[in-house]
Amino acid sequence: MEFEVNGARRTVDVDDDPAAVEVVRDRLGLTGTKLVCAGGVCGACTIQVDGEPRVSCLTPAARLAGRRVTTVEGLAAHPVARAFAGEDALQCGYCTPGFVVEAAAFFERWRAEHGPTRPGRE
Ligand code: FES
Fold first, then answer.
1. What is the pLDDT of residue 19?
2. Which one of 45, 47, 49, 95 would you pick to mutate in the ligand 1 pocket, going by the greatest count of ligand atoms within 8 A of its CB?
3. Mutate which of 57, 94, 99 to test ligand 1's pocket (most atoms within 8 Å of Cβ)?
4. In this structure, what are the phi and psi dihedrals at residue 32, rounded to the nearest 5 degrees?
5. Sheet containing 2-5: which strands, arranged edge to edge?
6. CATH architecture assigned to 2-114
7. 8 Å CB contact between 88 and 78
8. DSSP, residue by residue, 102-113
9. In the chain, N or C: fewer CB atoms in 10 Å?
10. Which residues of the chain have pLDDT under 70?
């Protein structure tokens, strides 16, 4: 299977039908994506697929074929990641990558629809 990860073309063998989190963490070594609940509840494993957040523990890796995947490692220079770091926005830090990936997707969606207007709390 071929797909793009953080701007680079990657090829992996997925004939054993793994979850996307296994491919991202174990085969590509992008360990910023965490596997915690493995049930789609906690969000620690969130990645972006074509800019949309997806829990990678419930996403079959085969669904990444031909898609553009972004992990927290690919968002290091994103304003949301810099804001999280600048505000020490973490607790133990284990789930923080999922927060960053989800918030960055929201940020990009909001900016595309509303420009520089700040969102309200709701
Ligand atoms: S590991 Fe908790 S939602 Fe995927």
1. 97
2. 45
3. 57
4. -65, -25
5. 8-11, 2-5, 68-70, 46-49, 52-55
6. Roll (3.10)
7. no
8. HHHHHHHHHHHH
9. C
10. none
Q: What is the pLDDT of residue 93?
A: 86
Cα 101 to ligand 1 centroid, rounded to whole Å? 13
Structure tokens belonging to residue 60: 């079959």
For residue 34, the ligand 1 atom closest to its alpha carbon is: 1
| pLDDT tens by residue, 28-62 | 999 999 999 999 999 999 999 999 999 999 999 99
pLDDT of residue 2: 97
The pLDDT value recorded for residue 100 is 97
Token pair of 36 as six digits:
């915690």
Residue nearest to atom 3 of ligand 1 (CA): 40
